[in-house]
Amino acid sequence: MVNEQPEALRLADELESEGDSWFRERDEEAAAELRRLHAENEDYGATCDYLTRENAEQIGEIVALKEQRDELLEALKQPRQPLTDEQIADIEDMFSNEFGLEAKHAVDFARAIERAHGIGGKE
Predict the structure, then answer these.
(1) Within this chain, do residues 32 and 83 fall inside the same structural domain, yes or no?
(2) How do residues 75-96 score in pLDDT, each as one tens digit?
(3) Are residues 17 and 50 in the same domain?
(4) Predicted TM-score (pTM) of this structure
(5) Do residues 63 and 12 share a domain?
(6) CB burial class (10 A; 0-12, 13-18, 19+) of residue 75?
(7) In this predicted model, which residue has the larger pLDDT, 112 or 76?
(8) Distance between the two ends of the chain, CA-based, in angstroms?
(9) Residue 105: per-residue pLDDT
């Protein structure tokens, strides 16, 4: 059978069981300190376990947000493409139908906006 006693407690027991010693008082102090530190370490471990359980959902959300951020950063690295004439026509139709606006020179207007944003050529 394997002794599963923590090393600090094993050492404390050993210090306390060494019969008469010239350093008996020191051995007892060292054993008491080992036991105190072991108890403190156990408390810290329990606190870490509790915090991990309590924050697991937030940790998952943080990981998901970091993944989204990485995807967005990667998307930003891709060259931006100008709208096709068909896409501009669809936008023009949407505005003229939805807002009753006539979009004269929609393609020229859209290309000017694209150039202002560094998209497409410098016509």
Answers:
(1) no
(2) 888 877 787 888 877 777 776 6
(3) yes
(4) 0.41
(5) yes
(6) exposed
(7) 76
(8) 83
(9) 63
